[in-house]
Each structure stands twice: as C-alpha cells, then as structure tokens.
What does this fold into?
Amino acid sequence: TDYINYLEDTPFYNERDYILGEDFQTIFAPRFRIWGTQNLNDYTKEVAATTIKIGAKNKEDIFTVSNEIGNGSLTYPVGLLMQDEVVMAGGRGHISTIDGGTNKNYFLYTDSTYWLITPCVYGYNFIEEKFVTIDFVKQDGGLAGHGSVFSALGVRPVISLQSATVFLSGDGTSDSPYVITSN
It folds into this structure.
C-alpha cells in the first residue's frame, strides 16, 4: 500500500465467453483458441479460429478499482495475467507443441507454477459433482488447463505503473528490487 500512488487503475480482463460443451460442461473461449477440440461445431470452430485478444465483452469481467472503466470490484489495482497475454508473451499450450509445451525462453518463465485469471471448464464430472477449472502456467513454462480451483498454486500479480513513474535501477529480484520514482 506504500506504493499505491505509483499504480494506474487499468483493466484486468477475465474473459468468460463460453461454449456449451459435451457432458454437461461449459468450455470457455480462450481454451479453444489455444487447444481446440476434436468435436467442433460451427460456433466452436469460429471461436477456435479467432486470434488472440485482450478484452472482455461484459463489464462484470473487467476488473478495476473504479466502476467508471470496469466493474469496480478491486480494492487495489492488482490483477492476474490472462491466458492470451501469456501466449502473446511467448507461452504455448501443451497439446499443440512438439516439445510438450516446455518453454523456458520467455520473460514469464519463472520455474514455478502459477494461476492465470482465465477460466477453462465448468461442469459436472462423471459422478455429477460440480467442478471448476482455471488455466495456469506450469513450472516448465508451458500453459496448462483444467487446474482445479482447489489446487494450491502460486500467483504472479500484475500491476500497471502510472505514466509519470520513472525506473531508476534494479532487475526485479529480491537481491536487486526495482527502484522507481515519480517524475
């Protein structure tokens, strides 16, 4: 909270566009853009063919502190990455790559597993229990889906600095944290 004056209230998107899947499941659009499925109907083919995007259709999926530009649900302007942002940064889905998704050569690789804000699947399992899964980045840097919301994974918070913020020094590690100031 000591640094709140340096942060910009920018939107964090939780895209919940969905497709009704098989077996009483709702599958969310970002998953189709990365993984697709063997049983595509016309609508899911259209979603799977869409390009990576940043945004959300519904105001309740745009997380902000202010309710003028988003839903006003956040206390502080801190969010999580979307699956599409990870792909834009160089992340890959584990099904569509020859090497199983291993990707240690992009800046979001941390050698740890962490949650994304992107929903993956909501539905009922074979014994009719509800389940919810969220996408995450695996320890090897690859994207993964179907992570149970009850799993204990890390988070990688995201912030946006105000335009008047100036970088002074540091590389972001605990030994050399970023040092910033206002212009």
In short: DSSP finds three helices and nine strands in the chain.
